[in-house]
Design goal:
The protein is mainly α. It is about 80% helix and about 5% strand. The chain is built from four helices and two strands, in the order βααβαα. It has helices spanning about 5-25, 30-50, 60-85, 90-110; strands at about 1-5, 55. The radius of gyration is 15 Å and the shape is elongated.
Length: about 120
């Protein structure tokens, strides 16, 4: 796997901007800062693999980008729903942490597939 630093910077900036949007939507709520930080972690965590990581096998690279894209849209729906309807701390942490752990474990398993 190779990381394209230019696209990683673009993905990071885009993730931070989307996280600021989630923070702004949740502004005035009890846990608006948590919503912004959690959104940043999840958006950056899916945008960087989607845009800037390349793999030696084009089949695996396509699968990894598709997985990252699906989880990115899942995180967008999740975070913006929490931001719009109110951030309840335990539900927010549990739901998004489970989604992120699922993403990481599936990504690891697909990326490791080439070495089997």
């Amino acid at each position: 796997m190779k990381l394209n630093l230019f696209f990683a910077c673009i993905a990071t900036i885009a993730g931070l901007l989307l996280a600021y949007l989630a923070f702004h939507i949740a502004e005035g709520e009890e846990n608006d800062v948590l919503c912004g930080v959690g959104s940043a972690v999840c958006f950056i965590g899916t945008l960087i693999p989607m845009l800037s990581i390349s793999h030696t096998s084009s089949r695996i690279q396509t699968n990894l980008r598709l997985l990252s894209t699906l989880f990115f849209f899942l995180f967008m729906v999740s975070h913006f729903c929490f931001a719009a309807f109110g951030v309840r701390l335990p539900y927010y942490i549990i739901v998004n942490a489970l989604f992120f752990l699922m993403f990481i474990s599936i990504y690891y398993r697909i990326g490791k597939e080439n070495n089997i």
